[in-house]
Write a structure and sequence with these properties.
187 residues, 39% helix, alpha/beta, Rossmann fold, globular
Length: 187
């Protein structure tokens, strides 16, 4: 188990002219600098999951990718005090592959910084047997927090990202060992 932990970063927003790539790219740079992780990206804009939850080749490929991961971070906006429908479709398109794996959240939005969406998502991921790490990265008035190069000087966000990555690494390593030695019940 000395191999890096596979971290999949899920980019939730699929809206035209979305701000998601700025936030996601910033977080990806931080995550990829952490030697504990091998980092991939699942951009839901480029992941065609049917909203009726039927299974097809794209869904099966998505399921395999979730199965192979040790941890996840959802980069999510907040729409009307909630999370994007694309993210709920992603969670609902997979079943057992999510179980016994940790997830962290990077949220952004207006005054709430996406925190209302994250609080709702914590309920969703608990239901699919995931472990939500405590630390969250949140950008209030996100468009004002990033410069033209996509960097931020938001000290709270920088600190939260580092703490969240440490928590994810601990949970991912612990749960990977547990899944290998004692499979999650109901899997």
């Amino acid at each position: 188990m000395d191999t890096p932990l596979r971290l999949e970063v899920i980019v939730a927003s699929v809206r035209p002219k979305r701000f998601a790539p700025v936030v996601a790219d910033w977080f990806l740079r931080r995550a990829r600098a952490d030697a504990a992780f091998d980092v991939g990206v699942i951009d839901l804009m480029n992941t065609p999951l049917p909203v009726d939850l039927t299974e097809n080749d794209e869904v099966r490929a998505f399921q395999r990718r979730v199965e192979a991961a040790d941890a996840f971070v959802a980069v999510t906006s907040e729409y009307n005090h909630g999370y994007p429908a694309s993210l709920k479709t992603a969670f609902d398109s997979v079943k057992r592959e999510w179980r016994g794996k940790p997830i962290g959240f990077v949220s952004y939005g207006g005054l709430s910084g996406g925190l209302r969406a994250v609080e709702q998502l914590r309920q969703v991921v608990a239901e699919i047997h995931m472990v939500s790490v405590r630390e969250t990265v949140s950008f209030h008035e996100a468009k004002r927090k990033f410069d033209a190069e996509g960097e931020t000087r938001d000290g709270a966000a920088l600190d939260a990202a580092d703490r969240m990555l440490r928590q994810l690494a601990w949970w991912a390593a612990t749960l990977r060992t547990a899944r290998a030695t004692n499979p999650y019940p109901g899997s």
